[in-house]
Amino acid sequence: QVQLVESGGGLVQSGGSLSVSCAASGSIFSVGVMGWYRQAPGRQRELVATITSRGIANYSDSVKGRFTISRDNAKNTGYLQMNSLKPEDTAVYYCNAMIIHRDSLRPTTYWGQGTQVTVSA
User: Fold this and answer.
1) Residue 114: exposed, middle, or buried by beta-carbon count in 10 A (0-12, 13-18, 19+)?
2) What phi and psi values does residue 114 have, to the nearest 5 degrees?
């Protein structure tokens, strides 16, 4: 019974900052790679950033230099710090994580419920 719960979305002005979080809970042995995706109106869901369990991060070109992905393995929580936000960053942001189950040790991907980030011009 693993779930990912997102929080921290909201409305921010262009150029502002916002942080979103993704907390994994349940029968978890460990959390593998975590990622953030976003989906804007009329657009397909796109990758924003990923981070491995040891902290190696990768970013899409559109957010590189502005966003920072991080994680706290002790809390099974991932974060996305978004700076210098632009209106085109407006989207529903979804977290994704590979979860190693405590009982079976099998890896399974999970998605958060999504959180709205709106950047005003």
Assistant:
1) middle
2) 95, 145
Q: Per-residue confidence at 37, pLDDT binned at 50, 70, 90?
A: very high
What pLDDT digit, counting tens, does each position of 47-106 carry? 999 999 999 999 999 999 999 999 999 999 999 999 999 999 999 999 999 999 999 999
Give SS3 for 72. strand
Rounded to whole angstroms, the Cα distance separating 59 from 54 reads 16
Give the per-residue pLDDT at 43.
96
Q: Report pLDDT for 1.
A: 83
Distance CA 102, CA 22 (A): 19
Which candidate, 11, 42, 33, places its Cα nearest to that of 96? 33
CB 104 within 8 A of CB 29: no
- Residue 19: how many other CB atoms lie within 10 Å: 15
CA distances from 55 to 50, 79, 89, 94, 120 (A): 9, 12, 24, 19, 31
